[in-house]
TrEMBL record:
Keyword Oxidoreductase attached: yes
Gene3D superfamilies linked: Acyl-CoA dehydrogenase/oxidase, N-terminal domain, Butyryl-CoA Dehydrogenase, subunit A, domain 2, Butyryl-CoA Dehydrogenase, subunit A, domain 3
Coiled coil start-end: none
The species this protein was found in: Podospora appendiculata
Domain Acyl-CoA dehydrogenase/oxidase N-terminal per the UniProt entry, residue ranges: 16-140
GO annotation, biological process: fatty acid beta-oxidation using acyl-CoA dehydrogenase
Gene Ontology MF term list: acyl-CoA dehydrogenase activity; flavin adenine dinucleotide binding
Protein name as annotated: Acyl-CoA dehydrogenase/oxidase
Domain Acyl-CoA oxidase/dehydrogenase middle: 144-246
Protein family according to the UniProt entry: Belongs to the acyl-CoA dehydrogenase family.
Alphabetically ordered keywords of this record: FAD, Flavoprotein, Oxidoreductase
An example Gene Ontology CC term for this record: cytoplasm
Annotated InterPro entries: Acyl-CoA_dehydrogenase, Acyl-CoA_Oxase/DH_mid-dom, Acyl-CoA_Oxase/DH_mid-dom_sf, AcylCo_DH-like_C, AcylCo_DH/oxidase_C, AcylCoA_DH/ox_N, AcylCoA_DH/ox_N_sf, AcylCoA_DH/oxidase_NM_dom_sf
Pfam families tied to this protein: Acyl-CoA_dh_1 (PF00441), Acyl-CoA_dh_M (PF02770), Acyl-CoA_dh_N (PF02771)
Length: 451
């Protein structure tokens, strides 16, 4: 809540945002977290898991709208659709949303709809906004983003093969996609699809386009829903989908041919930071569960409560340090986005995208260990939280891609720092002569040691 805003950023948070943050925290703690188990119970069993959605969601959405908690993710100053909060302010709110399975959807800030709404708001034309953005913003429908393909290494988006070919007043799509998150939900009415429209373009970053495909278009087949460490995430789901001569109007193309990379970079940057924000909240909840367990008087080992074992308190201390440090990385990226836009904040976003899920997995794993067998069962939220956050090390670009880019950027300083250090050493030599100090030679053990 607002009293816990880090002092380093507090003066950047408006009074209105602080008040809203308190409302978000109360809504999540008192309404959403208790509703998580109801959500699971209402999903149903068998095929029914994919035929509807838990009604508890609609009740929560009505409560959220009455509280003024809706579409907070559109950043102030970057979208006319914004309710007036900065990325920093929404980041503090999203942390609370990350503590509950249902909270993000309850306030219409759930992936992949957030990123898809940003695509339509930023790049869509008036007709596309009227047909798809408006009902998404109202929470009437849901959407999916189709980029990854099973037959290629999609971490390099230049490999994407789905064909998008012009035929008169239409485009025809052929290919397959997977990890199409949200495609299982019967409310999913629109796919935002990336494919290759001009494979002959000499610029590999101009070969791709993004197009809108209604989910009920002829030739679209959902083959299966992929599981995440055994969880199928019904009714949301992660679909494996094929397109066979799927024909959509040319007016469904977003922005223009060859603009695909521009669009996905504009989409994935904010999406990465949103995931990181929510992961901070998941980490906080895992720490809370660990604290509950280690202070449970019924759970003793070797004559002591868990909190009385030194290693356990060390876990608690490390978790607190790691969460607080990671939060500052996230908020720093949010500030950079607010001031200069997502493109200028790619390094800061990548830092958060890589660091935060790894931190969250570590904290959750400690909580699992504290619970023992219960920690890996359905009796706590920990196992599901771990599975969901583990996917974030792959989603929106695997860690290795971001680390490679960050490493390349950091290494650009190599020549400059070598020159700087050489200059410092030369200055040291001058000072040695000025003060008539004999330079000590390296010890013989060091000089002749073989590394």
């Amino acid at each position: 809540m607002s009293a816990q805003i880090p002092i380093a950023v507090r003066n950047r948070v408006s009074d209105r945002a602080k008040e809203t943050l308190d409302v978000v925290a109360k809504f999540v703690e008192e309404e959403c977290i208790p509703a998580d188990a109801v959500f699971d119970a209402q999903i149903g069993v068998g095929d029914a898991r994919w035929e509807g959605h838990p009604q508890i969601i609609e009740s929560l959405k009505a409560k959220a709208r009455a509280l003024g908690l809706w579409n907070m993710f559109f950043p102030k100053g970057h979208y006319k659709e914004s309710p007036g909060f900065t990325n920093l302010e929404y980041g503090l709110m999203a942390e609370w949303l990350g503590k509950s399975r249902v909270a993000s959807e309850a306030v219409n800030c759930a992936a992949p709809d957030t990123g898809n709404m940003e695509v339509l708001a930023k790049y869509g034309n008036d007709a596309q906004k009227a047909q798809w953005l408006k009902p998404l913003m109202e929470g009437e429908i849901r959407s999916a983003f189709l980029m990854t393909e099973p037959q290629v290494a999609s971490s390099d988006a230049r490999n994407i093969e789905m064909k998008i070919e012009r035929d008169g007043n239409d485009y025809v799509l052929n290919g397959q996609k997977w990890w199409s998150s949200g495609a299982g939900d019967p409310r999913c009415k629109i796919y935002i699809v990336m494919g290759k429209s001009d494979p002959q373009d000499k610029d590999p970053y101009r070969q791709q386009s993004v197009i809108l495909v209604p989910a009920d278009t002829k030739g679209v087949t959902i083959h299966r829903m992929l599981s995440v460490y055994g969880y199928d995430d019904a009714p949301h789901g992660h679909g494996h989908i094929s397109f066979h001569n799927v024909r959509v109007p040319a007016g469904n193309l977003v922005l223009g041919e060859g603009r695909g990379f521009e669009i996905i970079q504009g989409r994935l940057g904010p999406g990465r930071i949103h995931h990181a924000m929510r992961s901070i909240g998941a980490s906080e909840r895992a720490l809370e569960w660990m604290l509950m367990r280690i202070n449970d008087p019924r759970k003793t080992t070797f004559g002591k409560q868990l909190r009385e074992h030194g290693v356990i308190l060390e876990w608690v201390a490390k978790s607190r340090l790691e969460i607080d440090a990671a939060r500052l990385i996230v908020l720093n990226a949010a500030i950079k986005m607010d001031e200069f836009g997502p493109k200028a904040a790619l390094t800061e976003i990548a830092q958060a995208k890589v660091l935060v899920p790894q931190m969250a997995l570590t904290v959750i794993d400690r909580a699992v260990q504290a619970f023992g067998g219960a920690g890996v069962s359905q009796d706590t939220p920990l196992a599901n939280m771990w599975a969901q956050i583990r996917t974030l090390r792959l989603a929106d670009g695997p860690d290795e891609v971001h680390l490679q880019q960050m490493g390349r950027n950091e290494n650009k300083r190599g020549k400059a720092v070598a020159v700087k250090i050489a200059g410092q050493q030369a200055k040291t030599e001058e000072l040695m002569k000025e003060y008539k100090i004999q330079k000590a030679e390296l010890g013989s053990n060091i000089q002749h040691s073989k590394l």
